[in-house]
């Protein structure tokens, strides 16, 4: 069950992104991004729908060419026909002002624009091109995320800050100058957007790095200096366990401090792997912190010399996958089921105790133990399973428990 009341949130203004509220008292939102060529409207819409079904509440798409911009209205139309009302965010770099001018239908179809101050233009053109994009946001009443990345930091701003720093009696370290430039880029760009007419409650900020401690420092600083909603995420988390661990380490610190209104887990996907992994990791971080509940959680022991068989491991995996597959239907039929806990334990040491603590749990026999598996519901033993069909029988018991408890 979500315990978000235990973590005081950094107070931010609420921003409407399509049918989703970001900031204010709204729950932290899970976001993801496609990796298809947006010009291929069929594949892009299909991946958006997959991410939405996995639990992504906002989906960002690349808008980097005239063909991509022209495809955005079709992507939106295809999603609407599928009954997929996920808001789309347009990710712009370098030429966004030109694309929105050339394809106003794209500007209308998107629910939010993402602008990188470091890539919006150079010299005198920077302010002019930034203003053009803000004018489109004002015209179509769209919110904007001003997203600063340390890999594409405004070089003119950084050079100016480095020059000023060199004149100090005690110059700061390069890292500190870069940190200050990140924050300044975000806040001054937000101030300019408001000068150009964008309402205060139409702005979301982010300052992304790939390094955990730097990210934590940047967002703590940003949160102390503004009330804009903040979008969290490492700019490139990495692949596999590294990406998951780094994202969890960074975001958990900030979320525990009440900082963050949307999150995106920027995992490098394994070759041919599904894109939805980043959505699941984001959900699990929020659920682990007690901020939100998305799907019933399976408690399972790590295994030891008492559990020489891999039976409980296979059952735990089977139940966990099955529970996630049921959620698209269950969340509409069974209110609160997403907070349910299920225990699949492998021996008598902690098995009965953990099973009693869960809503429903099974304690499988370990090596040399009597080949029976007691099942507990809400702390009470209800049945003992035996034989070759324990997995199927336990799954049926879980389904019955859901129906009678959350129906």
From TrEMBL:
A Pfam match: GcpE
Please name the GO terms that the record assigns under molecular function: 4 iron, 4 sulfur cluster binding; 4-hydroxy-3-methylbut-2-en-1-yl diphosphate synthase activity (ferredoxin); 4-hydroxy-3-methylbut-2-enyl-diphosphate synthase activity (flavodoxin); iron ion binding
- Per the annotation, how and in what number is the cofactor bound? Binds 1 [4Fe-4S] cluster.
**Requisite cofactors:** [4Fe-4S] cluster
What region holds the IspG C-terminal domain? 297-399
The record's catalysed reaction(s) read: (2E)-4-hydroxy-3-methylbut-2-enyl diphosphate + oxidized [flavodoxin] + H2O + 2 H(+) = 2-C-methyl-D-erythritol 2,4-cyclic diphosphate + reduced [flavodoxin]
Recorded hits in InterPro entries, A to Z, give: Dihydropteroate_synth-like_sf, IspG_bac, IspG_bac-typ, IspG_C, IspG_TIM, NO2/SO3_Rdtase_4Fe4S_sf
Residues that coordinate or bind [4Fe-4S] cluster? 301, 304, 347, 354
**One BP term from GO:** isopentenyl diphosphate biosynthetic process, methylerythritol 4-phosphate pathway
Q: Does the keyword Oxidoreductase apply?
A: yes
Question: What keywords is this UniProt entry annotated with?
Answer: 4Fe-4S, Iron, Iron-sulfur, Isoprene biosynthesis, Metal-binding, Oxidoreductase
Return the EC number.
1.17.7.3
Q: Which PANTHER family match?
A: 4-HYDROXY-3-METHYLBUT-2-EN-1-YL DIPHOSPHATE SYNTHASE, 4-HYDROXY-3-METHYLBUT-2-EN-1-YL DIPHOSPHATE SYNTHASE (FERREDOXIN), CHLOROPLASTIC
Similarity comment: family membership: Belongs to the IspG family.
What is the protein named?
4-hydroxy-3-methylbut-2-en-1-yl diphosphate synthase (flavodoxin)
């Amino acid at each position: 069950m979500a315990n978000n009341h235990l973590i005081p949130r950094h107070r931010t203004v609420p921003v409407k992104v399509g049918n989703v509220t970001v900031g204010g008292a709204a729950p932290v939102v899970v976001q993801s991004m496609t990796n298809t060529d947006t010009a291929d409207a069929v594949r892009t819409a299909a991946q958006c729908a997959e991410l939405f079904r996995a639990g992504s509440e906002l989906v960002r798409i690349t808008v980097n060419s005239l063909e991509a911009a022209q495809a955005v209205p079709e992507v939106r139309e295809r999603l609407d026909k599928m009954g997929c009302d996920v808001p789309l965010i347009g990710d712009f770099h370098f030429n966004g002002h030109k694309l929105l001018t050339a394809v106003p239908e794209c500007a209308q179809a998107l629910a939010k624009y993402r602008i990188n101050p470091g890539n919006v233009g150079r010299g005198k053109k920077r302010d002019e091109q930034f203003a053009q994009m803000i004018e489109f946001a004002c015209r179509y009443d769209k919110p904007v995320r001003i997203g600063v990345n340390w890999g594409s930091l405004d070089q003119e701003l950084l050079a100016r800050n480095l020059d000023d720093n060199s004149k100090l009696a005690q110059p700061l370290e390069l890292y500190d100058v870069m940190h200050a430039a990140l924050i300044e880029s975000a806040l001054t760009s937000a101030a300019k957007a408001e000068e150009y007419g964008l309402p205060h409650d139409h702005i979301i900020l982010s300052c992304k790095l790939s390094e955990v401690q730097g990210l934590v420092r940047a967002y703590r600083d940003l949160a102390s200096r503004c009330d804009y909603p903040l979008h969290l995420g490492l700019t490139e988390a990495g692949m596999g366990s590294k990406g998951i661990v780094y994202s969890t380490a960074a975001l958990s610190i900030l979320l525990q401090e009440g900082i963050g209104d949307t999150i995106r887990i920027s995992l490098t996907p394994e070759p041919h792997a599904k894109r939805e992994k980043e959505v699941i990791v984001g959900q699990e971080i929020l659920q682990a912190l007690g901020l939100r509940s998305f799907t019933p959680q399976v408690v399972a022991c790590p295994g030891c010399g008492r559990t020489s068989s891999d039976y409980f491991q296979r059952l735990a995996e089977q139940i966990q996958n099955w529970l996630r597959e049921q959620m698209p239907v269950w969340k509409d039929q069974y209110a609160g089921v997403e907070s349910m806990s299920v225990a699949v334990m492998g021996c008598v040491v902690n098995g009965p105790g953990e099973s009693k603590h869960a809503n429903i749990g099974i304690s499988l026999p370990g090596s040399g133990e009597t080949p029976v598996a007691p099942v507990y519901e809400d702390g009470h033993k209800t049945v003992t399973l035996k034989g070759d069909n324990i997995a199927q029988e336990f799954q049926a018991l879980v389904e019955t428990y859901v129906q009678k408890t959350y129906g």
